[in-house]
Structures are given as C-alpha cells and as structure tokens.
Amino acid sequence: MIRNRISVWLKSSQFTHTFSPDSRGELTQTGPLSLHISTGAEAYQERKKMIASKLPLLMLILSGVSGLLRTHAIPRLEERNVALGAEAVQSSTGYGGLARYAVDGSLETNYHLKKCTHTAQQDNPWWRVDLNRTYNISRIVITNRGDCCVERISGAQIRVGQSLRNNGNSNKKVAVIETILSGHSQSYQVQNAVGSYVNIFLPGVEKILTLCEVQVFVALTDAHKASLLPEEAGLRNLAIKGRATQSSLNGSGMWAGIGVAGNAIDGNRNSALAKGSCTQTANESSPWWRVNLHLKYSISAVALTNRGDCCSDGLDGAEIRIGNSIENEGKDNPICDTVSSIPAGQTVYYNCSSLLEGSYVTVVLPREGTLSLCEVEVFGYSRIYAITE
Ligand SMILES: [Ca+2]
Question: Can you give the residue ranges of the Fucolectin tachylectin-4 pentraxin-1 domain (predicted)?
C-alpha cells in the first residue's frame, strides 16, 4: 500500500499526518494527527500541554501543507447518488418496466406511473447499473414497489464490482434483501464495496424483479473529486516535459513524416493531422507510442485527445500502460485503463484504477492499425510524496 507522510518539525517535537490514495489516486487523510515527543522526560508533560494548546494552529498549518500537495485533508460526510441517470440494463423487460426507471430519481412506487422496472417472469432475473467509473460505495438504497407484490424483492442480492462476468452477477455480494415493506425504501450500509457496476440479482425459478429506485451513495469527497478535472485538482501535466517516441512514423501519403511522436506532448490538442500537432505511425501490428517522464511519478490519470479530421475509431481498444520498464517497449507494464472509444477531436480522461508508479507511459494499439494521437497528458504526483511501505 502506498502511504504518504508529511512531517512538520516544531522545535524538538514531530507531528505526523497520514494520507492514503482513494480509488482514483487522490490523497485523503486516513490517520489521526499523531504527536511524538522526543524531549527529555522531565519536560514531557509541560511541553505536551503547551503543544496540545497549539494543536488547532498546527492542524491549520498541516492543512495548508496538504493543500500545497494537492490533497484533501478532512473528508466531509455528505454523500451523492452516483447511480442517478446512469446507464442501466436488465435481464429482460416485461410490462414496459424499463431498466432506467430505477435510476430516474423518482421514488414513486405505483408501478403504473412508469417509474419502476419490471423483468419478464424468468429464472434468475437481474438488473445492473454502470456507474462509469470506480467508486468506493458507502450505502445503497432500494425502493420497493407499493401497489402490489411486496414479496417479489425478497432474496435479491446486491453485488458490486468491476467484472461483467456472468453479467456482473458474480461480483462481490455486499448485501441481501430480506424484505422491504410495500412502497418503502431500505438502506444498506456496505463495506469494501468498490466497483463500477452495481447488480441486483434475484436467484430462483420463475422470478420477477421490480425496482422502483436504486440509489448508490458515495461520500462527497470521492464524488466531488470525480467531477474535478486533474488540472482543477491542481495536478500538473507531467508529459509535457517528457521525451516521446513511437514504433514507426507514417511515411506514405499526403502527410508522410508529419506525425512525429513529440506532437502528442506539445501542449496543443489540435486534432487535425495537417496542423502538425498529432502523431501517426505506419499501419502495422501493435503500434505503440511512449513518453519517458525522466523521473518516477505516482500517476493517477491520463488524458488522450483523438483525431478530429478522420478515423475517429482509430483509438478503439488502445491500452494505457504505466511502469518503469521499457521491456517489450513498455507494453507489458501495468494497465491504467483501456479506451473503448473517443469521439472525433475530443479529449477523454482515464483514471487509473489505482495509483500507478512509473516513469514511462505507453499507449499501445493491441491490433493491426495506425496509432494517431493528438495529445497525451499525464497527471500524477512526484514520487517523493508516495513512499511504498
Ligand atoms: Ca498535440
């Protein structure tokens, strides 16, 4: 586990502040402020009293220090429903009860008002929401139907995780619904529920699954940060001072030779190859592009800007890999994320599933094709603040 310590020395006393990265790599205070006295025993009590009286001031100083390190020191307790309006699917649909009705923000429980889901009668029906990024979920609230059939929800399992194996129904079981009163909402506190998928899975023969609302809550510190761009969180683009290279340079056609590797770290997101700010390899097997950051960093996010003048599906399936090795051109380094698709000319931010340490960021297209990138931005922390213990 990566932990970070900030120590402030005041005279002969040392204060330690402990931080840990969350799922997105943001640093959050996880340990209490601890106080270590290294003075002689006779002065101990007196100094302890004096220092204790200055603790509020020290907390202020420490929060200032952590601000400089772009950390968020004190988590707040508010929460946000990250399922609201997210993409939802279910095993089947019956009686017009669409999957998205469980994330429409309505707690209406009369089925006939089109605010609740409904599967067909089937074995093992399920419903799933895609939160679109990984969250550490604190609480899930399920709202049961109110106009009939109160017992149908009983036995449903709440599952959270990252996998779509078995449609996500094999992810970690974080709660089981015993009963929910007719038209009521039941809250389930969950622990170690980390993932981007939440499934409601109802095992059994000839079952019907109806959900009037599923609310998935995360602490506001996480949710708030999810809406922040790395720049807004104060992270620098580390790539801009790096050195870029790629598997080959396109040498044919009208723009032969124009797409050099450095164009992806020139600080310009212009998405037309002709403007001289995008890269382009030859058409080959597993083309790659790589930036050497010169130092080891703890990297939390990478932003890719796609071509806007053509071939916008060219990055589909590309892998972002981060590590310290250039063996196999860095293509075997740990994966930060995989591109599903990027709209033409757009920039998409990829949050690594965990804070990854490395001095090389490689983008590889694991198939035959041309790799063309208009900008690659790498966001992270200087390694000095991330000590692996
Ligand atoms: Ca560029």
Answer: 79-225, 235-385
Q: Specify the pTM.
A: 0.46
CA of 197 to the centre of ligand 1 (A): 34
Instruction: Say which CATH superfamily domain 79-226 falls into.
Output: Galactose-binding domain-like (2.60.120.260)
C-alpha to C-alpha distance for 63 and 69, rounded to whole angstroms? 10
How does residue 356 score in pLDDT terms, banded at 50, 70 and 90? Answer: confident
Distance 306 CA to ligand 1 centre (A): 10
Contact between 339 and 316 (Cβ < 8 Å): yes
Gap from CA of 278 to ligand 1 centroid (Å): 5
> What's the per-residue H, E or C state across 148-186?
CCHHHHCCCEEEEECCCHHHHCCCEEEEECCCCCCCCEE
Question: How far, in Å, is the centroid of ligand 1 from the Cα of 274?
Answer: 11
Q: What architecture (CATH level 2) is domain 238-388?
A: Sandwich (2.60)
